[in-house]
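Hi everyone, sorry if this is the wrong subforum. Our group has a chain we'd like a structural model of before ordering constructs, and none of us has done structure prediction before. Sequence below.
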Amino acid sequence: MSERSPLHAFTAYGIEIEYAIVDRDSLDVRPIADTLLAAAAGHETNEFADGPIAWSNELSLHVIELKTNGPAPTLDGLDALFAAEVRRVQGHLHALGARILPGPMHPWMDPLTEQRLWPHEMNEIYAAYDRIFDCKGHGWANLQSMHINLPFANDAEFVRLHDAIRIALPLLPALAAASPYADGRASGLLDTRLETYRLNQRRVPEIAGAVVPDRVGSIAEYHERILEPMYRAIASLDPDGVLHGEWLNSRGAIARFERGAIEIRVLDAQESPRADLAVARAVVGLVKDLYEERASDARAQAAVGTEALAALFVRSLREGEATRIEEPAVLAALGLGAEPLTMGEAWRRAVGRIGQEADRDVWRLVERAPLARCLLAKAGARPDKPALRELYAGMCAALDENRFF
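Answer:
Right subforum, don't worry. Here is the predicted structure as tokens:
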């Protein structure tokens, strides 16, 4: 999380939300993140921090990330801080004829022609990725997410937190899927972003694994089973070691040892900070419920194999909250009994258990089905570009007013 680590589990939080920069009128992507950051800082930079929310660049030049400026002691009130910073960003972009677009995928961007890599500081990392994987694709150019960083103070906390997150991970797209459109049409998936994400580095499969990470019994075992095989696998493609860092790991939850945290990465960015932070509170509540062994004991969670969790995760990308959980070991680890049920019902039961984290916005999120369903209900499976533009103009209005779509 920061130099102030170690922090104990659930005593602080780090939130990161990515946005696409688009033309104010056409909503086409605008690769001007460097211009935006320079306008805010007064000089060329890849990061700007002036308050509780910081800004930073990403691989794509049309993407800007807003993130907590160090560990936040609570999730309460963060949506208002992010909303205020969104207004600040919008003020700078207005002068450039641009704005930010919420959501995880631009619905009609052509990454083959419109992708521009960040050309300034740290460009050698992005250039290495591009040389090895070719970053002109949706899985690199068009996948805005919300990340949650949860701290751990020692080996025991790391193992318990990692176990809890593994069990929760397949359910997260059922709550947060918000990317039904790509290339100007419905993809047939509710979470197209994660489908492109899980396949974008298949040239070196050790990097993303099965997205759901394997179970480990210690930090040392994490290095041995997850990080070291990944470094060995890419070494011949990256002889200068440019990509030798724990951030190379592209699983859906990754250890960030320099922060003393585990970063959850499978959450589609939503329509507003209010919705994003409702997702964060629901996810943290579920993970904490598992971590504290209220839903099930640690032995039941540790016993669930990666293959079962990964298969469930992949199904959730298409079926969302309608995905049926049938595997007895998964049902037991989630504290759901023996009868199969849908992920939507699993979320309702989980939110009923998690106490104060389950506020009105969390319940609203669980009851509405994922945002992808709302978007499809409004524009359908075969929208033309004017219909998509109108749909995403509505998303922009939700962002500007910090409300649900």
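For your construct planning: The chain has a mean pLDDT of 95. The first strand starts at residue 14 and ends at 23.
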